[in-house]
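Anyone opening a protein record will find just a pair of labelled lines. A complete record is shown below as an example:
=====
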Amino acid sequence: MANPFDIANFNLTNFANIYPDVMDSDPKTVEYTYKDANGNIKTKNVENRGLFKKHIWDDVGGALGQFDRTFYVDAENGDDNNDGSSSNPFKTIEKAANASPIGARTVIYLRSDISQGIYGNLHNKRIFVFLNGYTWDYNEDKNISLYDTHFGIYRGSDDDKTSVFKINMPNSTYCFKSVMGTNSIVLQGIPNLDFTDDKSLAYSAGWNGTINLAINSCKLNFGDNNLLAYVGGNWSSRVILITMVSNSDKDGNAISDYSPYFSGLAFDTDNKLTNFLSNVKVV
């Protein structure tokens, strides 16, 4: 009778050694040499552990930030049933944003002008939208709710002079809502950043949280009564940090660089919450 401890040790050693340490899913199966209960050496094919590890990695890799995504949006020729690839773009930017894996870096390229908003709760996402010379007319009453999320909007290239991001909701007053955690909103190099009357970029209305709002190298066209960001609701304190660098107005006049820091909430004489950040001024 063979020693069961020797058999177990032999089998465990071989089982560990035959599998690769990297996530190599080829071949699909590997040959495993083992001893049966009588101590006889035998072989059988088993699934490659690398393939198993790849299954796990694909399932949770997005949450670990290991699987970045690139999506394309074409309102004219796309379809939200597509996979969002260059040859099969999505139709809406809402689909692309909501398809972004948790924790992953997702780049979205416009392939046409779009007149769309985004409705969705974005949890722990890193989204970078490149306008590529097209116009994003945010003209739907949809608010992007942010939970520990980065959302950036950029021009397509250094010589891009035509990209437009227009805040233009019919009834809603803001695009982004900071709900919880630390959220960052970046507008970089946009040659036409337009606010229609009474519209705002961001609204903080949730639990303890921070909005980091950066507007850099953009040409801004304000309407009347615009707010970059404001607070509201009845939850505990929020923080808004705004940085503006190398921006100009629609006529090319420089707007002063500044980084005002606002902490907590503002109240009026009736102890009601009130807005506390007014429009930037041209110098």
Observations:
- Residues 19-25, 260-283 have pLDDT under 50 and may be disordered.
